[in-house]
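Is this the right way to post structure tokens for a design question? Let me know if I should format differently. Anyway, here goes:
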């Protein structure tokens, strides 16, 4: 029970954070009015008292854990340091900026604003000692401190735009690829070029992944082929196969078997056997898959799909072995641009053009089964003393979306983000 209680307490603080930052300690008690059915609510139900403005009790916590702001038109998001941080790229005051949040507390801990153009790729070292960001206009790769935002160096000798970037496990070397099919390795301390290897693909590299043991590199290219290469080996890369509709834009190695999972930009995910290069199975997806992320164990996929006449505002969670739709994460008011799983697969983060990022608890999303969404707003009623039968009301209650309702002397005040509204 202790674990569940701690989890509930964290969710309560995150969900009611906008109001709790503005009010006194007693608001923690009034927040319980809106807490869902949980260990926390059952233990402290006697503290709640009568409810005047609450409509119903939610069956469980909402799938999203918080709403992160600060990136206008956020277009890229990822977890870092094993899920400890969330890093996102977007706009701020007409400048391209990268923001860093503590994933547990949803508190902003750092930022970096050194690029002139749109950030097209991000990677963070395993220990979060440094991050690498890529921009193609003009071509640049920056290495910077995750917390302080201090520029540590810039990669030179790029020889053209960089499309993909990865970092070897253990805060190791930086790997980059570009339009010419050459893999380059860089020392993060000096930003100097260490080695380069021709992947035998004179094409733009569209996807890049490193196995957890730092031994293998998997990549996809614009010619729709997917290949694998043993790092630092003299043998050439081995082509696994060619996809039907388009090039792979996401590649990962599963945690247990290290078999490669390749997600296609259009309609397909393929599972390859790394040892013999055979296709184990393929999974058909909806057409026009805008973005897709795979769980580390290769069991689940989170994807944004769109039809020809709609913009995707939601994210679908699928079970890959049978293609079952498990949950539909709704709440963003504009297009979802990026999805990522945490290293342990317990959380998903989405970045949207509505200028917000939303971390989602994966297990809660599955339990909710489309019953709870992150835009759920509880109905409030403006009450006067005559309506409640009370002539002197001294209480405060808050809703999950940050509204505070206070009552006293026949007056009800609703407070939301700096604006008071009064009913009498």
């Amino acid at each position: 029970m202790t674990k569940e209680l701690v989890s509930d307490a964290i969710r309560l603080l995150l969900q009611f954070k906008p109001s709790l930052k503005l009010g006194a300690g007693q608001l923690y008690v009034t927040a319980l009015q809106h807490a869902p059915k949980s260990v926390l609510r059952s233990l402290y139900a006697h503290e709640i008292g009568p409810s005047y403005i609450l409509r119903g009790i939610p069956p469980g916590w909402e799938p999203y854990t918080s709403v992160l702001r600060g990136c206008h038109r956020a277009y890229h998001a990822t977890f870092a340091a094993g899920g400890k941080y969330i890093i996102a790229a977007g706009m701020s005051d007409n400048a391209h900026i990268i923001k860093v949040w503590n994933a547990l507390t949803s508190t902003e801990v750092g930022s970096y604003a050194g690029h002139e153009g749109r950030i097209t790729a991000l990677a963070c070292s395993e220990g979060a000692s440094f991050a690498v960001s890529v921009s193609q206009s003009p071509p640049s790769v920056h290495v910077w401190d995750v917390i302080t935002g201090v520029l540590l160096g810039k990669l030179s000798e790029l020889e053209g735009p960089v499309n993909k970037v990865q970092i070897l496990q253990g805060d190791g070397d930086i790997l980059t690829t570009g339009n010419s099919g050459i893999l380059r390795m860089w020392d993060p301390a000096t930003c100097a070029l260490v080695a380069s290897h021709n992947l035998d693909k004179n094409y733009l590299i569209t996807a890049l992944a490193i196995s957890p043991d730092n031994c293998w590199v998997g990549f996809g290219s614009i010619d729709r082929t997917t290949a694998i290469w043993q790092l630092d080996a003299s043998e050439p890369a081995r082509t696994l196969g060619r996809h039907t509709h388009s090039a792979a834009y996401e590649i990962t190695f599963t945690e247990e078997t290290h078999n490669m999972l390749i997600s296609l930009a259009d309609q397909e995910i393929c599972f390859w056997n790394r040892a013999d290069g055979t296709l184990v199975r393929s999974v058909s997806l909806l057409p026009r898959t805008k973005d897709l992320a795979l769980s580390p164990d290769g069991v689940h996929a989170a994807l944004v799909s769109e039809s020809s006449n709609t913009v995707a505002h939601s994210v679908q969670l699928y079970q890959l072995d049978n293609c079952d739709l498990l949950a539909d994460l709704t709440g963003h008011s504009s297009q979802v641009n990026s999805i990522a799983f945490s290293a342990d697969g317990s959380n998903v983060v989405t970045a949207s053009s509505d200028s917000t990022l939303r971390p989602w608890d994966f297990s809660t999303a599955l339990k909710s089964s489309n019953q709870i969404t992150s835009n759920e707003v509880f109905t409030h009623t403006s009450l006067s003393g005559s309506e409640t039968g009370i002539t002197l009301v001294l209480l405060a209650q808050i809703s999950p979306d940050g509204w505070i309702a206070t009552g006293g002397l026949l007056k009800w005040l609703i407070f939301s983000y700096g604006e008071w509204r009064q009913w009498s």
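Format looks fine. Someone answered above. Worth noting: The chain is about 10% helix and 45% strand. The longest helix spans residues 2-15.
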